[in-house]
Amino acid sequence: MEPVLEISGVHVYRQGSHILKGVDLSLSGGSLALIGRNGMGKTTLISTIMGLLRSSEGSIRFMGQELIGKKPCLIARKGIGLVPQGKRVFRSLTVDEHLKLAFEPKRKHQADIYWNVERVYELFPRLKERIRQEGTRLSGGEQQMLAIGRALVTNPSLLLMDEPSEGLSPIMMETVIEACHRLTAAGISLLVVEQSLHFASSVSDRYAILMTGAIVQQGEFPDLLRDRQLLSAYMGISNTRVAR
Ligand SMILES: Nc1ncnc2c1ncn2[C@@H]1O[C@H](COP(=O)(O)OP(=O)(O)O)[C@@H](O)[C@H]1O
Ligand SMILES: [Mg+2]
């Protein structure tokens, strides 16, 4: 099967600093968690896939098509959705307005489900209860649901999620984990950037660790969660903190 996303030899500089130093990563459907400590380049990689940052070298192929050099709007139109770090919802727009503005009625849907505003309310009934609320009057968890919904109504076949569990209560975290399961079941591929190993390993079977701009380790989550040395070397945590 052709990979959904195939990244090879990607280098990115930001303000003269060499941030990504030859990233190789492949995703063939389902969900892959990109993990690693703060400042390692996870958001830089997500932004580069989306065309928001320029790669000086390498290749990023989505369904076999090269993305490097393409504008963000064209990359989005090809079927990649972004749930950005920090959610980025607007103060002056209501829940309903966010979703209606992002909705792409003519997008050919590549996943199994066609996502419109009503479908998002079925996935997150809580958002329907907040339909007339303005963005920043929502709780952190509700803002995350809205950020996911806003990406879904563009009908992506690949969703890039940058730290979706950041700032969520434990209950909200479980709600978002459950939603991610429904998305992969509906045929959407996920690349999930996470610092929470609980969230990452609940959503993804596979992981890749980004360390100072390169992928240093990848494999299956059960093996990682058993590997105390790996966890402390790359994640800076002891096994006792890995609650499942
Ligand atoms: N706007 C920026 N300009 C220059 N350097 C940046 C910018 N944003 C982040 N960086 C640097 O890029 C590196 C990777 O950051 P980032 O991709 O945000 O890491 P992560 O998402 O893994 O925490 C860090 O060293 C950070 O200081
Ligand atoms: Mg980040």
Describe this structure in words.
There is one protein chain. By secondary structure, the protein is of the alpha/beta class. It has a single domain, classed as Rossmann fold, CATH 3.40.50. The protein is built from 10 helices and 10 strands. The strands form 2 sheets. A 6-stranded mixed beta sheet has the order 6-7-8-3-9-10, with helices on both faces. It has a 4-stranded antiparallel beta sheet with strand order 2-1-4-5, covered by helices on one side. Helix 3 runs parallel beside helix 6. The longest helix is centred in the last third of the chain and has 16 residues. The mean pLDDT is about 90. The chain binds adenosine-5'-diphosphate and magnesium ion. The site of adenosine-5'-diphosphate has 12 residues, from strand 2 and helix 1.
Keywords:
single chain; 244 residues; alpha/beta; Rossmann fold; six-stranded mixed β-sheet; four-stranded antiparallel β-sheet; 10 strands; 25% strand; binds adenosine-5'-diphosphate; binds magnesium ion
